Amino acid sequence: MNFNISWFTQERIVFSIALVLFLVFSLSLSGFFSVDNLIVLMRNVSVLGILGIGMAIVVIGRGIDLSMIAVMAVSSAWTLQLMQNGYGLGSALALGLMCALAIGVANGLLIAFVEIPALFATLATGIFLYGLGKSTMLDLDVIYLPENTGWFEEIGKGSIGPFPMPVILFCITMVVAWFVLSRTRFGRFIYGTGDNPLAARITGIPIRIIITGQYAMASFIGFFAGIIIATSVSAVNTRIFHSTMIYDVILVVVLGGIGLSGGKGSVRNVVVGTLLIGILLNGMTIMDIQFTYQNFIKSLILLGAIILDSVLHPRNEETAQQGDI
Amino acid sequence: MLKKFTLKKLLALGFASTLTLGMLGSAANAELIDELREPYIQSFKGKKVAFLPIAMGFDLTEGWAEAMKAASEKHGFEFVIRDPNWNTNAGTQALTALIAEKPDIIVAHNPDVQSYARLLKKAEKAGINVIQVNMKSSYSTNVYVGADWVEIGEAGAQEMVKRCGDGSGTSGKVAIIQGPLTGAASVYQVKGVMNILDQHKEIKIVANQAADWDASKAKAVTQTVLQQHPDLCAVFGFWDVMTLGAAAAVKEAGQTGKVSVLTNGGGNQMACDNVKSGAFDKVWSYDVPGQSRDLVSMIKMIFQSNAKPGDMRVALYTPLKVISREAFDPSICWSLKK
C-alpha cells in the first residue's frame, strides 16, 4: 500500500485523535465504554453540534455568525417570558422565532447588500439583540419555564426508546442540513458563493439572496438550539452570551476541517469535531478533572490538531485562498 | 363633724391633686421629645449610597437593590447602581470610578475573593464606608452582611451524612457542584463541607466539579456522574439557580427520590416551587428580604453614628431558613414586586 501523507486531512487527523482517545478511555476508565454512557456523551454535546451545523452553513458560504449565541439565548428566553406573561405556547414560539429570523435577515441584508464584513455585522447585531433583550424584552437574567407545558418540555427532557430527544434532534438537524447542502440548488449555490463569490455572481447565482438565506438559516438553528436548552433545564440563562460558547461553536466547525475561507466542508466535519469535544469532556468529567483544567487540556489538544494539520499541509500559493483569515 | 370635714378635705385634696397631676402631665407632654428622631431624619440628608453588584437581573441583586431603593426614596438619600454585568473587569473600573466620586457608602458584591480586595482598601483610605454583601473579599471592611457560607456548607454536609452515612443503607456516594472556584461562596462552602466530611470517611465524594453558576453545565456534569454511579446518594449544588440543572438530570434519569438534591439560595419563589414539585429535597435559604433589612439597617447605623472606615469589623451573618418538603412553609419564599 502506498502511504500518502495527504490522506491525513484535518478531518481525518481529528477523527484519529478522537478514536485514540476513545480507545484509551474505554480501556482505562471503567464505565466509559457502555451504551448508556455513550448516549450521555452525545446528549451533552448535541446542542453544541446543532449550533455547529448552523455555523458550518454560514462558514461554507464564506461568512461567520457571531450573533448566534445572542440569538439563541434572547429569542428562546423571550419565548419563555411571553409564556409567563400569559401568551399561549403557539404565539410565544412564533414571536420568538420571528425575533430570531429578524436578526438573521438583518445580518444577511447588512452583509450582502450594505456589504459590511460578516465579522463586524454579526458582532454588532449580537450585542444589539442582547442589549435590547436585557433592557426591554426580559425581566431577569434567568427566565424560567412555566410549569406544565406538556409536550413542549419533552423537546429537552423526553426520549424515544433509549435516545434522549436532544440527540434525536441533533441527528434530524444533521440529515436536513446534509440534504439542503448537498441535494438542493440553494445548498450548491452556498458552496459556489463561498468558493468564489465574484465568479458565482457572474454565472448568475443570486449571491445576495443566498447570503441572506444562509444567515436566516443559522438564526433559525440558533433559536431551535435555545428551545432545546430551555426545555432541558427548565430555564434559559441569557448570561451564556458572556461565555466562550461562540468560540466553542466555531472551534467545532474549524476543528472538523471546514476552512474559514469558505466553499469547503460538509456536515460530516461538524460531527467529527463535535465527537472529539464530546469524548474529551465526558472522559475528563469521569476522571473528575476540574473544569479549569478541562479547558486547559481541551485547548492543548485542539492546538495540537491544528499544528499537525499545518505541518502536514503547509500553505502555499496553490492552496492558499484569497480571503483566508 | 370630723367625718364631714375629712370628706370635704379629701375631696378638695383629690381635686387639687388631679388638677396638679393633669398640669404636670401636660407639661411633660410638651417637653418630652423623641430626641433620636430628628437626628435620624437629618442623618440621611445629602448622603449617597452606591451599589456595585456582580450583575443586576437576578433574584439576589434585584432583591437587595429593591430594598435599598425603597429606603432611599423614603429617607431621601441618593442611591445609584453600577452594573458591571458579570464582567469583573468592568466591575473594577466601576469601583475605581466610584472611589473618585466619593459616595458615603459603597455596597460591594464581590465576584471573587481577590479582584476587588486592593480597591476596597483604597476606598476605605479615601474615607468611604464599604459594606460587603453576601460574597466577601479577602479584605474585610467595616461591615459584612450576608450568608455564612461555612455554616451552609456544614449544614449541607451534615444532611448528606444523615441521608447517606452509616446506617442509611446507601452507597454513601455524593457529588458536589460548585460555582467558580475563586468565588467566596464556593471557597467557604467547600471548607464547611470538608469540616464535616473529614470526620465521616463513609461518605465518598465521587465528583467535585465547578459548573460556574450555569444550569446547563451542572446538568451535563450530573448526567455523567449518574452514569458512572447510578447508586449515587446525593448531589449538593452551591446555588439553587444552577442546581436546577442537576435536578433536571436526576429527574431524567428517573432517580427522583433516590438521589437527594440539596442546595441553597436566596429563597426566591423558584426554590419553594421546586421543593414542592420534588426537584429539590432541601434548600437552605439565606433569605434575601432578611438580608435586605440588615443592609438597610447597617446603612442607617453608619449614617447616624458617623462611623469612619476601620471603626468596626462587623459581620451580620444571615439566619438561615430551611425549605423542605417535610416542613413546607410557602411563606418562607419571596418574589420581586415588579
Keywords, please?
heterodimer; A: 325 residues; mainly alpha; two-stranded antiparallel sheet; two-stranded antiparallel ribbon; globular; B: 338 residues; alpha/beta; 6-stranded parallel β-sheet; 6-stranded mixed β-sheet; 12 strands; 17% strand
Can you characterise this structure?
The complex is a heterodimer of chains A (325) and B (338). By secondary structure, chain A is mainly alpha-helical. Chain A is 70% helix and 3% strand. Chain A is built from 13 helices and four strands. Chain A has helices spanning 10-28, 35-60, 68-84, 89-112, 118-137, 151-157, 165-183, 185-195, 197-202, 207-233, 245-255, 267-286, 291-312; strands at residues 142-144, 159-160, 163-164, 235-237. In chain A, the strands form two sheets. A two-stranded antiparallel sheet of chain A has the order 1-4. In chain A, a hairpin with a 2-residue loop joins β2 and β3 (163-164). In chain A, α2 crosses α8, α2 (35-60) crosses α11 (245-255) and α3 (68-84) crosses α10 (207-233). Chain A is globular. The mean pLDDT of chain A is 89. Chain B has 338 residues and is of the alpha/beta class. Chain B has eleven helices and twelve strands. In chain B, strands 2-1-3-4-5-11 form a six-stranded parallel sheet, sandwiched between helices. A six-stranded mixed sheet of chain B has the order 7-6-8-9-10-12, with helices on both faces. In chain B, β9, α10 (269-277) and β10 form a beta-alpha-beta unit. In chain B, α8 runs parallel beside α9 (240-252). Chain B is globular, with a radius of gyration of 27 Å. The model of chain B has no long low-confidence stretch (mean pLDDT 89). The chains are: A mainly alpha (325), B alpha/beta (338).
